[in-house]
């Protein structure tokens, strides 16, 4: 079983022990006491305080005094660190207890013959009993990125017979870096901790049991993380259902840049749990930059590696900004099946990968659930739209789906955008009865107005930055208002329209509709009515 370890930065002994009790109550198997910011040098008082940690801990513990050169807080003499490790390993006096593990950096281990000698004596102490035995974790860290000499370091770790456990942790620069870390336990064939730091490394922490990792770290609270990208134990055990992950678990996720804000993991992991499916859904960030072609090539390489990875069992993904058009392009290049909306829009948001019994990828299909969800929301809100005018504000990817939805319902479309050239390009690509205007109103009463811009989004542009999206532009012509933004639920546009008595909805319903369609596309099952809504409501109600 892959263990869950809560790291605790020690500044106060009593507070650290209280956190260890909280970690036990939260479901941890062990704790790591990081004493490098507490231990500044060896003296009897400090020794006595440090010895309290393993003696009074409610869980088995790792004690780590991480050197500053490896991202820790200890910058004192090596001799003092050797002395405290030796004393910890020999803690067999009255009221004393040794830690289960001591963690040392491989570089320090190789540099100091004195440290090697003293730690070997500590872990091979004749008084140690089987259930009290202290073992050694030898570790390699790089907070900048994947070490250029990674394979040399891994080989050196593998050769160290003194180590009961080996650990490799570096800042993952991409999902491909993370996939390399997942493969290390099988490569080393010994107890291994292999973790990616940063947002690209989250899957290494969550999927440790799938790949035979010895343990993973999870913080007690967001502010207590000891490495970038470390999840909380609540999210690890609850949201990602860590205890149920095994080598056969199917992997899904949300691909975009950025994806840390996405609420899709809440929905789909709840859906998998309710349906009792052996699957987990993760954020899968793929970076994108100003160079569109370079971003596409990165997206392509990463998706193909996810699909082709032998042990991952990657089954599908939601695709969000800015990669929706890249998914449709990749599908065309690879000969994957696309649905009608994806073909028409040149953009897709859902990938499904079937697998043969051998685990090899089989049929791969792509679809767009955004546009049909928007169409259905629009139809329910505004009623029959055949031959009536629908205004779409914006000319980006969301606007593309909105135009398709309105056209699919037989409406005449008016695209309004500050940059008229962008609107005309969109109209030209989609064709049909589309009029382009730089601003509103234009004299005709529209049946509906769709905000397809980020104006009003939490963290987005200020509501007044695009006056054409405000209800003041439609005084005297009350249309139905559909705002595609779902965070916040009551956007400025929806709030102002509702105050005037107009029919108005935000994007939450559309978001849930498209997520339900994705779940059906992947699993063939229908999530229970109200499940996704209740999950989001519970999340919103949390402090």
How does this structure look, described?
The chain has 543 residues and is of the alpha/beta class. It contains 20 helices and 20 strands. 38% of the residues lie in helices and 19% in strands. The strands form three sheets. The protein has an eight-stranded parallel sheet with strand order 7-6-5-4-3-2-1-8. A six-stranded mixed sheet has the order 10-9-11-13-14-12, with helices on both faces. Strands 17-16-15-18-19-20 form a six-stranded parallel sheet, sandwiched between helices. Helix 17 links the parallel strand 16 (412-416) and strand 17 (434-437). 48% of the residues are buried.
Structure described in brief:
The protein has 20 helices and 20 strands.
Shape: elongated
Helix content: 25-40%
On the 0 to 100 scale, the average pLDDT is 91
Kindly report how far apart the N and C termini lie: 32 Å
**Could you give a short account of the major beta sheet?**
8 strands, parallel
Find the structural class using helix and strand composition: alpha/beta
Rg on CA atoms, Å = 28 Å
Low-confidence stretches: none
Number of helices: 20
Describe how the helices and strands are arranged.
Layout: E1 3-9, H1 13-26, E2 30-34, H2 44-56, E3 61-64, H3 78-89, E4 101-105, H4 106-111, H5 113-123, E5 135-142, H6 150-158, E6 165-171, H7 175-182, H8 184-188, E7 192-197, H9 202-206, E8 215-217, H10 233-239, E9 250-256, H11 264-275, E10 279-285, H12 292-308, E11 314-319, H13 324-334, E12 337-338, H14 340-345, E13 350-355, E14 361-367, H15 370-382, E15 389-393, H16 397-408, E16 412-416, H17 420-430, E17 434-437, E18 448-451, E19 480-483, H18 492-499, E20 504-505, H19 508-523, H20 531-541
Parallel strand pairs: 1-2, 1-8, 2-3, 3-4, 4-5, 5-6, 6-7, 9-10, 9-11, 12-14, 15-16, 15-18, 16-17, 18-19, 19-20
Antiparallel strand pairs: 11-13, 13-14
């Amino acid at each position: 079983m892959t263990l869950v370890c809560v790291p605790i930065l020690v500044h106060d002994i009593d507070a650290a022990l209280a956190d260890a009790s909280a970690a036990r109550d939260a479901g941890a198997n062990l704790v790591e006491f990081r004493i490098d910011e507490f231990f500044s040098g060896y003296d009897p008082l400090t020794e006595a305080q440090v010895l309290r940690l393993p003696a009074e801990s409610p869980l088995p513990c790792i004690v780590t005094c991480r050197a500053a050169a490896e991202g820790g807080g200890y910058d004192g003499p090596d001799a003092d660190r050797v002395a405290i490790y030796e004393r910890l390993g020999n803690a067999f006096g009255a009221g004393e207890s040794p830690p289960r593990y001591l963690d040392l950096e491989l570089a320090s281990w190789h540099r100091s013959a004195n440290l090697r000698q003293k730690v070997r004596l500590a872990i091979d102490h004749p008084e140690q009993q089987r259930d009290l035995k202290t073992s050694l974790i030898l570790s390699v860290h790089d907070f900048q990125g994947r070490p250029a000499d990674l394979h040399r370091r891994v080989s050196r770790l593998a050769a160290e017979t003194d180590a009961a456990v080996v650990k490799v942790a570096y800042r993952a620069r991409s999902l491909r870096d993370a996939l390399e870390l997942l493969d290390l336990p099988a490569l080393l064939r010994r107890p291994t901790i292999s973790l990616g730091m940063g947002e690209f490394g989250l899957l290494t922490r969550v999927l440790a049991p799938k790949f035979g990792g010895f343990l993973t770290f999870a913080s007690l609270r967001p502010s207590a993380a000891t490495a970038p990208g470390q999840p909380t134990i609540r999210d690890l055990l609850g949201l990602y259902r860590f205890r149920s992950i095994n080598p056969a678990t199917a992997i899904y996720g949300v691909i975009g840049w950025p994806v840390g804000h996405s609420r899709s993991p809440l929905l789909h992991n709840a859906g998998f749990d309710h349906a009792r499916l052996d699957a987990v859904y993760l954020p899968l960030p793929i970076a994108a930059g100003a160079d569109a072609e370079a971003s596409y090539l990165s997206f392509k390489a990463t998706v193909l590696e996810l699909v082709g990875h032998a042990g991952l069992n990657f089954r599908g993904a939601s695709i969000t900004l800015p990669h929706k058009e890249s998914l449709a392009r990749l599908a065309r290049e690879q000969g994957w099946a696309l649905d009608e909306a994806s073909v028409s829009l040149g953009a897709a948001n859902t990938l499904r990968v079937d697998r043969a019994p051998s685990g090899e990828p089989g049929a791969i299909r792509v679809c767009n659930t955004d546009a049909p969800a928007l169409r259905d929301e629009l139809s329910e809100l505004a009623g029959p739209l055949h031959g009536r005018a629908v205004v779409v504000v914006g000319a980006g990817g969301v606007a593309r789906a909105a135009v398709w939805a309105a056209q699919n319902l037989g409406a005449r479309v008016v695209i309004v955008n500050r940059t008229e050239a962008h609107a005309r390009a969109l109209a030209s690509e989609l064709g049909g009865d589309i009029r382009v205007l730089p601003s509103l109103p234009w004299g005709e009463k529209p049946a509906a107005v769709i905000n397809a811009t980020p104006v009003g989004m939490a963290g987005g542009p200020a509501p007044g930055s695009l006056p054409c999206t405000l209800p003041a532009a439609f005084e005297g012509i009350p249309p139905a208002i559909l705002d595609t933004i779902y965070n916040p639920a009551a956007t400025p546009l929806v709030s102002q329209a509702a105050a005037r008595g107009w029919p108005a909805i935000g994007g939450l319903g559309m978001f849930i509709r498209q997520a339900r369609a994705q779940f059906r596309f992947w699993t063939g099952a229908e999530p229970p009515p109200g499940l996704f809504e209740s999950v989001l409501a519970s999340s919103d109600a949390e402090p």
